[in-house]
Design brief:
By secondary structure, this protein is mainly alpha-helical. It has helices at 9-14, 16-25, 36-40, 50-61, 65-77, 94-110, 124-133, 142-166, 171-183; strands at 2-7, 186-191. It has a two-stranded antiparallel ribbon. Helix 2 runs antiparallel to helix 7 (124-133), helix 4 packs antiparallel against helix 9 (171-183) and helix 8 runs antiparallel to helix 9. The longest helix is centred in the C-terminal third of the chain and has 25 residues, at 142-166. The chain is globular and about 45 Å long.
Length: 196
């Protein structure tokens, strides 16, 4: 027997608000992004990433908006190890990465979301916005499609989390909270293989 993962779509749907929050926090910081209502509407004590997101929120409120903007730019715009493009470090062959970007773009459009022309489909805030905004309940394509999106995010954020930890970045706790949130939606299944 061999294991594989599937996404619990109901659990993922219950966490939609937090994906919107994660998406906003990973775009260029603006003052409104740090309003208490942004946090309160997306998280409660039962949220799987609550402890980490609380630490992130506290850290961000300990520094000025100018400092947050500087940290954001230095971290995500100038460091290859901390890129927000989820396939950049994982898929090193241009053709393979191009195929994944095209697949993600088609997937977004399949669920009625139009991609910004200026953005690549593996941009983490865009992927999280998709999880937040897409209406997939009742769609037979949802299981396979959302599993792909979640797995690309999990793969991409694995190295990102390590790099942010090494830099002692305030974004470490945000990405850790995101990973905890996604992990709570993954169900391990056992696959029976025939032994002849």
């Amino acid at each position: 027997m061999e294991g594989f993962s599937v996404i619990n779509l109901d659990a993922l749907y219950q966490l939609k608000e937090s994906f919107g929050f994660f998406s906003n926090q990973l775009t260029y910081p603006e003052k409104l992004d740090f309003h208490p209502k942004a946090f309160e509407s997306a998280f409660d004590e039962q949220h799987p990433g609550y402890a980490e997101i609380q630490q992130y929120w506290k850290n961000m409120h300990d520094i000025s908006l100018d400092d947050i903007q500087e940290v954001y730019t230095r971290t995500f715009d100038f460091e290859k190890k901390t890129t927000l493009y989820m396939t950049y470090n994982k898929l090193t062959e241009q053709k393979e990465r191009g195929q994944m970007l095209a697949r993600l773009k088609v997937l977004y459009e399949m669920f009625g979301l139009e991609m910004p022309k200026s953005e690549l489909s593996d941009f983490l805030p865009l992927m999280l916005e998709f999880l937040y905004a897409a209406e997939w309940r009742g769609d037979s394509r949802a299981q396979e499609s959302l599993t792909l999106v979640v797995m690309v995010i999990e793969d991409g954020t694995y190295e990102l989390l390590k790099a942010l930890g090494e830099q002692n970045s305030p974004y470490f706790h945000l990405i850790k909270a995101l990973r905890e949130t996604l992990k709570s939606c993954v169900v391990e299944q056992e696959k029976v293989t025939n032994c002849d």
